[in-house]
Amino acid sequence: MQRAVKTIHPFEFRADFTLAEAPVVQAPDGPDRISLTGEELAALLAQARHDALAEAARQTHADDLGSLRAFGAELSQVLADLVALTGHIEAVNYDSATEARARGLIDGAAKRIIDGQGDLFAVCKDLVSRLDTTPPHGPEDKA
Predict the structure, then answer these.
(1) DSSP 8-state assignment for residue 94
(2) Phi, psi dihedrals of residue 30, rounded to the nearest 5°
């Protein structure tokens, strides 16, 4: 850690290598000086810790929500691909048993994806509600 230089004092060189009397530096009195009691400092530190934890949780929720939304978009693309595959199966002249089996497999996969999307949307909604209720700058005073 480096310190900022606030003032420079001339050094008096002596033949006996002893220091001259050190200049007395006084702390400024006025708006640059802050005075806190131990309790005030502890409350300030607790508030800063709470704010940092709340912001970290909010950021984590926002990141999770973004990932879940991207995953939901991928699932929608998979459903679109299944619809296209169904169209291709109908266009090819398979026998009815093969076509029925293929459609059953596609319908089953689509149902599982749609059910998963419902769960995914519920999780996204929960995360959005958490983001809406997480205070951006700490708790409100309850006095």
Answers:
(1) -
(2) 140, -150
